[in-house]
Amino acid sequence: MIFSNAVVLSVIILATLCVLKVPVFFALMISAISAGLIAGLGITDTMTYLIGGMGDNAETALSYILLGSLAYCMEETGAAAIMAKKISHLVKDNKFLLCVIIVIISVIAETIIPIHIAFIPILIPPLISIMNKMKMNRKMLAVSFGFGLKAPYIMLPIGYGAIFHGLIVDSFKSSGLEITGSDVIRTNWIAAAIMLGGLICGLILFSRDREYEIKKVDKNENISEKLERRHIFVLLSGVITVVVQVLTNSLPLGALVGLIFIVVTRVIKWDDMQKMLDGGIAMMGFIAFVMLIAAGYANVVIKSGAVNELVEVAKSLLGGSKLIASYVMILLGLLITLGIGTSFGTVPIISAIYVPIAMSLGYSTMATILLVTVAAACGDAGSPASDTTLGPTSGLSVDGQHDHIKDTCIPQFSFFGIPLIIIGGFLTTIL
């Protein structure tokens, strides 16, 4: 039975614990251990796989800590506050314009300057006061972040998109289907277009006024808007980070060089380096550790054989119908992604299974690519363990008035996950 499967039960446990407001860190650990025990691994092997699998996200976690330190420097020097003030002057009382600006910044953070979610906890707090005055429902920004952080890497082979597209090409090749990067590009704009429709609907629905208690959260609200030498250097460090990353293909190395530049130029004094690192850990450490646990969870469910069991059950439900097959495989991908919290980690898992099935059922190359993309992405925007949800919450909840599940996860899943499942699933049968 599908409901006795370790993956299914552990995802249900994860969702239940998150709804009960158990911290995501503990909820993930409990769910991972539950998956191992349900699959019959035993507590010793489960913990071994859990801890051993954390290394799969080690580079990502290190990147977050170092980028968090870089973001802390931007916050301490007031560079982020200056940017936020300029955005405030530009926006005035226009909620939709603020959302458009956030989408643009998010797209840039995924492509041209690949700092991913590191900018959120430094840019959003200075904007909270103006958002409160506008009576802006923060769910508008939650869905704006959801689109800006996901659609670029799904559609464009730049920055994080280069990694995602490369994963699809490589995993398809390993599964017996040769495709090129151009195949992914000419297919995945469809998924991005579905998400754009979801974004527009979400912004319209959440545009009604919502009252928030006025709290002071911006310690730099009285800072001058004049750019100083330290502001220029700290912004230049971001450029250096990107250049080094592009040249070496290593985001942690790029962030490290950027931090060294900040210290050498005395933006941060020698004696304050520990404070800089502590600030980075405080800002991004939680998300980094959640990503480590998510990788451990993924390793547990893979080693347990629960994913393969789930696939066998899914195969028995297909019945030779493309429509049924598409929705069964997408929902299976949803379950996996909701648990491990990353579409990047889901692609290699499901490609090995879906590509042979799709080929046997006569799916076109485009349909197969879209199937894998949708199955991997539909649960990312909405998973409690995803950086696409954790990042926005880290900024929007700074005054304690934004709930991770109700205000970030559910809105993102409602306007991105569900449309991807319904529309994407249908389109895979006609491409």
UniProtKB/TrEMBL annotation:
UniProt keyword Transmembrane helix, yes or no: yes
Topological type in the membrane: Multi-pass membrane protein
Source superkingdom: Bacteria
Chief place where the protein resides: membrane
A Pfam family this chain is assigned to: Na_H_antiporter
Domain Na+/H+ antiporter NhaC-like C-terminal: 146-424
Compartments, record wording: Cell membrane
Residue stretches spanning the membrane: 31-52, 64-83, 95-128, 140-168, 188-206, 227-244, 280-302, 322-341, 353-377, 413-430
Domain Putative Na+/H+ antiporter N-terminal: 5-90
InterPro entries: AA_Transporter-Related, Na/H_Antiport_NhaC-like_C, Na_H_antiport_N
Transmembrane helix is among the record's keywords: yes
Assigned keywords, A-Z: Cell membrane, Membrane, Transmembrane, Transmembrane helix
Coiled-coil parts of chain: none
Protein name per the record: Sodium:proton antiporter
Biological source species: Peptoniphilus ovalis
